[in-house]
Design a protein that fits this description.
Blueprint lengths: L3 H27 L9 H10 L7 H5 L6 H21 L1 H10 L4 H8 L4 H10 L6 E5 L2 E4 L4 E4 L11 H15 L12 H13 L3 E5 L2 H16 L3 E5 L23 E4 L4 H9 L3 E6 L28 H18 L2 E5 L11 H6 L5 E5 L9 E5 L1 H4 L2 E2 L2 E5 L10 H14 L2 H6 L3 H18 L4 E6 L2 E6 L9 H7 L2 E2 L8 E2 L6 H20 L11 H16 L6
Parallel strand pairs: 3-15, 5-6, 5-7, 7-8, 8-9
Antiparallel strand pairs: 1-2, 2-3, 4-10, 9-10, 11-12, 13-14, 14-16
Helix pairs in contact: 1-11, 8-15, 9-15, 11-12, 17-19, 18-19
Length: 554
């Protein structure tokens, strides 16, 4: 008895010591989204298991088991579309094909415009090209002289229209021309930019970088430096740039390390933040308000019609305020990543729009007046890169092209114009304008009996589909044929510039409906009796297993 008592006590002590760790681990697991997007390691393992295979011509047209009479509509419809692309976009497509030999980005975007099973067949026949000649108003012109309404938004840069940014660059360049491309020292415009950015952000200090990704890197690094903690929290589906810590999972060759990917708008995540002691910062991308916990929508993953989106401003505002409270209470740095949405929602950005003040804010894209830039604004105690009492303990960050004179000149013009009545007027009733436009287009689509709808966060839109289908990704090509320019993610994201007037938007809506009607006439939205999105995904899974196990020939 005397011998077993110490062992029993030791065992109880070990269990007691382990219990808090197990409890924290369980809470962390509960705070993760149940999808693969919320489990980075599992997503990478699953991605490695997916085999490549592609459909032959017959399977391309009846991947959904469509009857012969429907296939008889699809074949000539696709042929007509291919002929239109061949003749209308000949020069643009030719240069894109030539340039792709040396531009890996073109190879990637061309391959991932549609689900991989269909990709080669589409690439060989629907060649639109990735080159443009000019821009004016709300349109861009390609190498063949085709004018297209621009819905790409240049990855979010284009808030006020390309003419606006062209003049920002021209005027800004003239202001700094006497100094030229001198690096290291600052042009005097930098001091003015800092003053304006401090007023906009409501924060104390500013640092300049060459991209939004770099700005986020610096914000996270400073948060770790000042809190002495290693881990960061990002929310499921959110994009914060392509560097390792904030982009775990598929696309990152390294496994996740000091990153927790949690559910957004969820009490379990708040509990993790409120109980753990190893979290340096929380990153929030306000764009996720349109599709919380879902990744950036792109047509390459549009294998069925399960994609959904909606925006509830009041609910997302309440979530951000809860985050603010717990971060304040626990000494966690709240970083608002406004690289994409910055100055699109309100003159003061997402902080003004949602009424929440962050500890650090990152900006990029549009703030450079059309030139590359990244900016971090933060509290004074968080922005300091050294310690007075430990001179060798520093947090280094410096870039050769940070605060480049030409970028700073264009930024100064941009920030000055942000304060003019003409630009301020663009924000008056902004939500009402774009919500009304989205509702109008949805009413037209519903009235025409088309299985497609739009959802929006102000002027940022996405498309979703109301009946199960394997061919929704085809819509991007019909839209291109109607003169609408989309980015490589297809119908996943439309970004309107704020200089779209009612006539411009009416033209886009008319073309959108016409494209959807043409796609419907060509039989792509045929619906098998009893089909569901779940059945479609199960069918694709069976295909993958068959190819993985060597049971399929195609």
């Amino acid at each position: 008895m005397n011998e077993t008592l110490p062992m029993y006590v030791a065992g109880v002590a070990a269990v007691a010591a382990a219990f808090p760790r197990l409890k924290r681990r369980l809470e962390l697991s509960r705070a993760k989204h149940p999808s693969l997007t919320g489990h980075s390691r599992m997503a990478k393992r699953v991605a490695r298991l997916i085999p490549f295979y592609e459909y032959d011509e017959a399977r391309f047209f009846n991947a959904d088991g469509a009857p012969d009479e429907v296939v008889a509509l699809r074949r000539p419809g696709f042929a007509n579309l291919a002929e239109l692309f061949r003749t209308r976009f000949a020069r643009s497509a030719a240069l894109a094909g030539e340039a792709a030999e040396g531009i890996s980005d073109l190879q990637f975007t061309a391959s991932y415009r549609v689900p991989f099973q269909f990709s080669r067949y589409v690439r060989e026949r629907l060649k639109g090209g990735g080159f443009l000649q000019s821009s004016a108003g709300v349109k861009v012109t390609d190498l063949d002289g085709n004018e297209l309404y621009d819905l790409t938004g240049s990855y979010g840069v284009n808030v006020f229209g390309y003419d606006f940014y062209r003049s920002c660059i021209a005027e800004g360049s003239a202001r700094v021309a006497e100094l030229g491309p001198v690096l290291g020292a600052y042009h005097p415009v930098v001091a003015d930019n800092v003053r304006r950015l401090r007023a906009i952000s409501g924060l104390d200090e500013v640092s300049f970088h060459m991209s939004g990704t770099e700005a986020v890197m610096q914000a996270v690094r400073l948060a770790r430096y000042h809190t002495g903690r290693r881990n960061l929290v990002r929310f499921c589906g959110a994009y914060h740039g392509w560097w390792e810590d904030v982009q775990p999972g598929i696309g990152n060759p390294l496994p996740p390390r000091e990153t927790y990917t949690l559910k957004e708008m969820d009490a379990d995540s708040l509990k993790v933040l409120d109980t753990r002691k190893d979290i340096a910062c929380v990153l929030v991308n306000p764009l996720q308000a349109l599709h919380p916990n879902a990744g950036a929508p792109g047509d390459s993953s549009l294998v069925d019609s399960a994609r959904r989106a909606s925006f509830d401003r009041a609910a997302y505002t309440a979530w951000l305020k809860q985050l603010r409270e717990v971060c304040t209470r626990r000494g966690i740095v709240l970083i608002l990543d406004e690289v994409f949405v910055g100055f699109r929602l309100a003159p003061g950005g997402a902080q003004e729009y949602f009424g929440v003040r962050a500890d650090m804010v990152t900006y990029g894209k549009t703030l450079g007046g059309g030139l590359p830039v990244g900016v971090v604004c933060g509290r004074r105690d968080l922005m300091k890169r050294f310690r007075d009492d430990r001179p060798a303990d520093i947090c280094f960050a410096r870039g050769t092209f940070n605060a480049h004179p030409y970028v700073m000149g264009a930024m100064q013009v941009f920030l000055e114009r942000m304060e003019t009545p003409a630009v301020r007027d663009l924000y008056v009733g902004l939500d009402e304008i774009w919500n009304r436009r989205a509702a109008m287009l949805n009413a037209q689509l519903e009235g025409a009996g088309l299985p497609v709808r739009v959802a929006n966060l102000s002027s940022i839109w996405t498309v979703f589909y109301t009946q199960p289908s394997r061919y929704n990704w085809m819509l991007q090509h019909y839209l291109r044929a109607e003169g609408l320019a989309l980015s490589w993610v297809g119908t996943g994201r439309f970004i309107f510039s704020l200089n779209y007037d009612e006539a411009d938007f009416a033209a886009v809506a008319e073309r959108f409906v016409a494209a959807a009607q043409a796609m419907q006439r060509d039989g792509w939205w045929w619906e098998a009796p009893g089909v569901t999105n779940k059945l479609i995904r199960r069918g694709i899974l069976r295909e993958m297993l068959a190819h993985r196990l060597g049971f399929a020939t195609k």
